[in-house]
Q: What sequence folds into this?
């Protein structure tokens, strides 16, 4: 790319500080060093920095240096947070994500204002109001299971407003402009651990909307691969999709599956912790020993100590980090006038250990 000397200064600063994802200001080298590195005149470098300063990208403190801001300095960056209305009272995973969003927004320079918008509002003119709000926003964070998602995306494209997806429900957004938990990798590890430990007959209980949930699809494909389906003729996986995600639906799933099948399930993998607690309850009522005969794993990583009857083995999603990364990615897209960015997959942790056997815990990374 042949850039004019002045444009090379901006390109140089953007590239040099691209790793700074926090939006915080960073000190830049002396102007003579910039001119020497770019092989341009000192006057050209000075003129270019002045233009950046006029645009709010450069500021100088006497005696302290010159600073570059990855995001244009203004009164604020305005972000719309578009999320589905939640029907469950116990959804502190969403709360933790929002905590990460607020933390990142409050520590950003310039400051970020976040406008929440529920897509399941009782207002008939919800979409019209949201589209009108886009005129006053710089970008939008889109959660999964959003009503009228296509219309929202078309409006954002028409108005030139960049979008970042959290845990997208569309395959065409999986590889770019999205932040998600790495559901495939953690499920692959689980499948491999269960197979190595001798488990052969698995039941996967998935929360609703499996067809439109990329995470559930990745959980399934990762677990199937790790468990050896297609390579081990003795291994089987049964999939049960619940109507809803609360505990009673995990209980119902196990009850129905055990009534229909004479073969014993020796591992049950649930897409939600509440589903897993319901599964444990049903197994105990059937006289099945957990984890000696059947291991049970949840995949949300919530901290429901008040209702935990067992030390449930569960994967811990980095909810707070997800929120921070959503802000960081959207600010970077805003800075780069909407340029696409690679998706960011965040690794899971794991906790509990009471519903999986010691040898399985060792394979999963417990000490």
A:
């Amino acid at each position: 790319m042949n850039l004019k000397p002045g444009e090379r200064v901006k390109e140089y600063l953007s590239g040099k500080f691209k790793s700074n994802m926090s939006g915080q200001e960073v000190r830049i080298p002396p102007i003579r060093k910039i001119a020497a590195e770019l092989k341009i005149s000192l006057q050209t470098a000075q003129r270019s920095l002045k233009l950046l300063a006029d645009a709010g990208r450069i500021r100088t403190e006497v005696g302290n240096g010159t600073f570059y801001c990855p995001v244009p300095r203004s009164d604020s960056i305005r972000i719309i947070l578009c999320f589905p209305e939640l029907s469950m009272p116990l959804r502190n995973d969403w709360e933790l994500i929002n905590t990460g969003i607020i933390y990142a927004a409050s520590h950003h320079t310039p400051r970020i204002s976040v406008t929440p918008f529920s897509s399941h509002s009782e207002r008939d003119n919800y979409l019209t109001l949201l589209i009108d709000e886009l005129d006053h926003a710089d970008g939008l964070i889109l959660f999964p299971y959003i009503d009228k998602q296509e219309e929202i995306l078309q409006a954002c494209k028409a108005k030139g407003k960049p979008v970042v997806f959290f845990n997208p429900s569309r395959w065409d957004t999986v590889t770019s402009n999205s932040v998600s938990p790495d559901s495939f990798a953690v499920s692959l590890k689980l499948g491999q651990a269960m197979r190595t430990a001798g488990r052969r007959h698995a039941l996967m209980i998935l929360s609703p909307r499996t067809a439109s949930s990329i995470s559930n699809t990745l959980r399934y494909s990762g677990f199937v691969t790790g468990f050896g389906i297609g390579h081990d003729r003795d291994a089987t996986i049964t999939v049960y999709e619940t109507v809803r995600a609360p505990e009673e639906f995990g209980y119902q799933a196990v009850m129905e599956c055990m009534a229909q099948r004479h073969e014993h399930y020796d591992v049950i993998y649930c897409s939600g912790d509440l589903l897993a607690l319901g599964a444990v309850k049903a197994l105990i009522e059937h006289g099945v020993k957990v984890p000696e005969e059947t291991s049970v794993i949840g995949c949300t990583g919530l901290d429901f100590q008040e209702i935990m009857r067992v030390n449930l083995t569960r994967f811990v999603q980095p909810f707070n980090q997800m929120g921070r990364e959503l802000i960081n990615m959207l600010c970077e897209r805003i800075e780069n006038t909407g340029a696409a960015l690679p998706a960011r997959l965040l690794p899971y942790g794991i906790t509990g250990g009471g519903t999986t056997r010691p040898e399985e815990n060792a394979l999963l990374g417990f000490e």
